[in-house]
Design a protein that fits this description.
333 residues, alpha/beta, Peroxisomal Thiolase, Chain A, domain 1, 2 domains, globular, binds oxa(dethia)-CoA
Length: 333
């Protein structure tokens, strides 16, 4: 009797970025900064900003629709929807519910995943487990953010770093001769220093008041230097742990898709793994940091550019506010 494995594979990807492209020189027109500073410190050259009336769910829907089209399945076959975001349309209902309705998807299990920039990679891990349980067949996992809505344009240390967009993947559970698709996933968190990267106002700890608004507490706040140090550490650990756990070495990797936060963080990851930068797919220069959308946008871009072939070993790795981190190793099928 031939043995079979239960595998979860990505059968379609999609992405979307708003049409409004804002270059570093554009930013320098209203913030005390320069193209030279932003590029040399972060690797960012431009970002997309959504229109005022364009929501996170709007962007998520376009990326989701594109992923379903690429997967070649009917939308009625989706039975799990996860939207990773820290900039939902509203605190509730979930952005995933809004996506379900706008895309006319079935009335299925639908929820948001909040793990900041690690959200999409966390979402893949959760979808993988739910599909392997046998209770679900096809999952739509989306990472979508309207970061421009929570940026403080009076704070040059943060507002130049982020952008808006969405990326999506359709995952399916199948019987395969040997294990392919998602080989393994891990996630971690350290919530001991939440103030390093947070949006302090708007929750139960600091409901909106005139004072909280006047104090600019509803915008993103970040200690960039400390986050940088943690990012270098956890991106390296999350990568080496998953590679080792699955019985591989870094040189087995065909492509790494890291969270797009800072080119210097990505370069230090390449150094730590002793693999060349050519094995990384980066689009930081054109998108900035799109938080939970960054890995799925880069994944979709890399796949459509022919950088991922069937049989390739692909590592996705992310970190974000929390602190959170997550990695997924995929044998692309
Ligand atoms: O998804 C997770 C998110 N976040 C991250 O991954 C961020 C991680 N951290 C970083 O990427 C980097 O720490 C930054 C890019 C945020 C900053 O780079 P840095 O090399 O750590 O710069 P710094 O904060 O030490 O700032 C250096 C100088 C300061 O001036 P002084 O005090 O040396 O005179 C800042 O005031 O650069 C100044 N500065 C700026 N100058 C021009 C800060 N922001 C800007 C700016 N334009 N936008």
């Amino acid at each position: 009797m031939p043995s079979h494995s239960q595998s979860v594979t990505i059968i379609g990807t999609g992405s979307y970025a708003p049409t409004n492209i804002v270059t570093n020189d554009d930013m320098a027109k209203f913030v005390d900064t320069s193209d030279e500073w932003i590029r040399s410190r972060s690797g960012i050259g431009a970002r997309h900003f959504a229109a005022t009336d364009e929501t996170t769910s709007d962007m998520a829907c376009i990326a989701g629709r594109r992923a379903i089209e690429a997967a070649g399945i009917d939308r009625s076959e989706i039975d799990l929807i996860i939207v990773a975001t820290m900039t939902p349309d509203m605190p509730f209902p979930s952005t995933a519910c809004l996506v379900q309705s706008k895309l006319m998807l079935p009335n299925v299990t639908t929820f948001d995943m909040q793990a900041a920039c690690s959200g999409f990679v966390y979402g893949l891990s959760v979808a993988n487990s739910m599909l392997l349980s046998g209770n679900f067949k096809n999952a739509l996992v989306i990472g979508a953010e309207k970061m421009s809505g929570i940026l403080d344009f009076e704070d040059r240390t943060t507002c130049v770093l982020f952008g808006d967009g969405a990326g999506a993947a359709v995952l399916t559970a199948t019987e395969t001769a040997e294990k392919v698709g998602i080989l393994g996933a891990l996630g971690g968190a350290d919530g001991s220093a939440p103030s390093l990267l947070q949006q302090p106002g708007g929750g139960s700890a600091m409901p909106a008041t005139n004072e909280s608004i006047a104090g600019r507490q509803h915008f993103l706040k970040m200690n960039g230097k400390e986050i940088f140090k943690s990012a270098v550490r956890v991106m390296g650990q999350a990568s080496t742990d998953i590679i080792e756990q699955m019985g591989y070495s870094p040189e087995d990797l065909n492509l790494v898709i890291p969270h797009q936060a800072n080119m210097r963080i990505i370069e230090s990851l390449a150094k730590r793994l002793s693999i060349p930068m050519e094995k990384f797919h980066n689009n930081l220069d054109r998108y900035g940091n799109t938080s939970a959308a960054s890995v799925p946008i880069a994944l979709d871009e890399a796949y459509r550019a022919g950088r991922i072939q069937s049989g390739d070993l692909v590592l996705l790795v992310a970190f974000g506010a929390g602190l959170t981190w997550a990695s997924t190793l995929i044998r692309w099928q």
